[in-house]
Write a structure and sequence with these properties.
Elements: E1 36-42, E2 45-53, E3 66-70, H1 78-91, E4 99-104, H2 109-114, H3 143-154, E5 165-171, H4 173-184, H5 188-192, E6 197-203, H6 244-251, E7 255-261, H7 276-279, H8 285-300, E8 306-311, H9 318-323, H10 325-332
Parallel strand pairs: 3-4, 3-5, 5-6, 6-7, 7-8
Antiparallel strand pairs: 1-2, 2-4
Length: 342
């Protein structure tokens, strides 16, 4: 497979702790909004969710065998992710044939006003959507419900008769979104019922969603360590209706690959979650990834249908990570990278 100038060139989107507050620049309205929309049903009627798409997916696509969903970070710059994704697919050569690239866009309410979008366009708080939090307008539905709608569309065999694989991939903040959705998301069932394999690629997030209050690096007096985004104690979105125990049993059988850069070890990285809840998971991203994997393997052993892959010499660098042979394989080729597995 040829070298690809990969997907997440701009994916170093900030993952600084929400508990510490997000720099005000992230609250500014964005200039570029995805031109295509998908309908999302809600109790208040249908609302619209913007998605960049590499082809007109409102029409049947008999040639599509794989779909790669690319998730943006706090900058909401799905246009940059989408552009890089197209370049990556094209550069992948034969492996990129029959691949539809999608880049969902979680707009903030300020984006809707600034871009004069229709009132039924989903709008979120600018720093509260990646964990499945409810939209502010026009209906308080979870961002994960919008992902469900995308996957439901892909599960329509009349539209995608040849589809065999869907990959949800994210680095940094996008990795947080993908990991949490892999735990609680309900959209996978529609695809697996049609024989479509669903894979999740979680790369170098600042934190993970745990199933119990136990943490590898407990922080004294940290009352938020098991709250939502980190655990299930409090502030869990209404979208989540299953108990943590049931979610854990489902999660361990989902096809998740943790893709970790071994040089991502800076405990003072400017976009590392340094809240007490984040620090309770480890001093830096590699430690947090190791600890989470150790927890899963200790609790589930051979029942775990997941992979942990490391890439030497890569720090918090999304482009290098997904431009690596393993990153290329995970998006456009093999199920995992067994020669690099832990």
């Amino acid at each position: 497979m040829r070298r690809i100038a990969l997907v997440f060139a701009a994916v170093l989107a900030t993952t600084a702790a929400w508990a510490q507050g997000v720099p005000s620049k992230y609250a500014l309205p964005i200039a570029h909004v995805a031109p295509t929309l998908i309908d999302v049903p809600t109790p208040r009627g249908v609302v619209e969710f913007p998605v960049y798409a590499s082809a007109d997916w409102s029409q049947p696509m008999p040639e599509v065998k794989r779909v790669v969903l690319i998730f943006h970070g706090l900058l909401r710059n799905a246009d940059a992710y989408f552009k890089a994704g197209l370049q990556s697919r094209d550069a992948a050569g034969e492996a990129g044939h029959g691949v539809l690239v999608l880049a969902p866009q979680f707009l903030a309410d300020v984006d809707i006003a600034a871009n004069r979008l229709p009132a039924n366009t989903l709008g979120f708080d600018y720093d509260h959507w990646a964990g499945g939090e409810a939209a502010l307008t026009p209906a308080p539905i979870s961002g994960f419900t919008a992902i469900d709608a995308i996957l439901a569309r892909l599960a329509d065999r009349r539209a995608f008769p040849a589809l065999d694989t869907v990959v949800l991939a994210g680095f940094s903040a996008g990795g947080q979104t993908v990991q949490r959705y892999a735990v609680v998301g309900n959209g996978e069932q529609a695809l697996t019922a049609q024989g479509v394999q669903v894979r999740y690629v979680v790369s170098d997030p600042s934190s993970y969603l745990y199933f119990t209050p136990a943490r590898p690096y407990p922080v004294a007096g940290c009352k938020q360590a098991d709250d939502w985004r980190y655990g299930f104690h409090a502030k869990v979105p209404d979208y989540v209706t299953m108990a943590p125990e049931a979610l854990e049993q489902r999660y361990i059988h989902r096809n998740v690959t943790y893709l970790v850069g071994l040089a991502d070890t800076d405990p003072h990285h400017p976009v590392l979650d340094r809240s007490c809840a984040g620090e309770a998971q480890g001093p830096h991203r590699v430690a947090r990834a190791d600890a989470y994997w150790s927890m899963l393997t200790a609790r589930h052993g051979s029942d775990l249908n997941q992979h942990f892959v490391t890439v030497a010499g890569i720090a918090h660098e999304g482009q290098k990570m997904f431009n690596s042979p393993c990153g290329q394989a995970l998006l456009f080729g093999a199920d995992t990278c067994p020669d690099l597995e832990k």
